[in-house]
């Protein structure tokens, strides 16, 4: 089963209000590019619906969190402890109650800025443009602004331009991520720990990164499209038309 799921309940909720107390932004920790990528991939997996595939991936995440900065490691390990202690049916019910039924806990980043208005359609297009500018096509059923998808994109960004696009995409939606963190903390929900781990690895979006990000996104996709095919919960991006045996090399 793939990583991404369609949630019509969330998609058609009104724009969230500002009733949850806003938390102060977390000061970023010192992390290497590899640590940032590992954190974002781990969060991408852990923020997905807790089915059997996600729970299996969580066991793999447990094996790599030791290489992360202490503040990130502590939060992810605490969440993994909570996940492992829960019954599958209860975990699934909690996930639905948290992310599908509470509009301030939406996993769709453009939702925080635009709600379900005409502006949101343009925001979704911008996500697709960002992915394509890095040479990727979305291979899944979720909307392109789905936070786990954006985090996986960031985790797979290895070239300078890919990193700038990923940083610009997450940085331009940092306010939405912070609203989500505040809402989860107010519940309280253990998922706040995962979002906190992400926030700890998101530096402020500097002017040069923002400029280059917008330049790359608006210039269109590169001539050569490269990527990975969908292989379960780890790979929702794939170049259009590429056969599995080619892109797995």
Radius of gyration equals 17 Å
Portion in strands: under 5%
Number of domains: 1
Task: Give, in order, the helices and strands.
Answer: HHHHHHHHHHHHH
Spans of at least 5 consecutive residues whose pLDDT stays below 50 are: 1-18, 220-249
In short:
It contains 13 helices and no strands. With 249 residues, it is an all-alpha fold.
Protein model, in words:
The chain has 249 residues and is mostly helical. The chain has one domain (30-247). The chain is 57% helix and 0% strand. It has 13 helices and no strands. The chain has helices spanning 8-11, 33-46, 52-62, 70-85, 88-100, 109-114, 118-133, 147-156, 160-171, 174-186, 191-199, 207-219, 244-247. Helix 2 packs antiparallel against helix 11, helix 8 runs antiparallel to helix 9 (160-171) and helix 10 runs antiparallel to helix 11 (191-199). The longest helix is centred in the N-terminal third of the chain and has 16 residues, at 70-85. It is globular and about 45 Å long. The protein starts with 7 loop residues before the first helix and ends with a helix.
Descriptive key words:
disordered N terminus, Nitrate reductase molybdenum cofactor assembly chaperone, 249 residues, single chain, 13 helices, mainly alpha
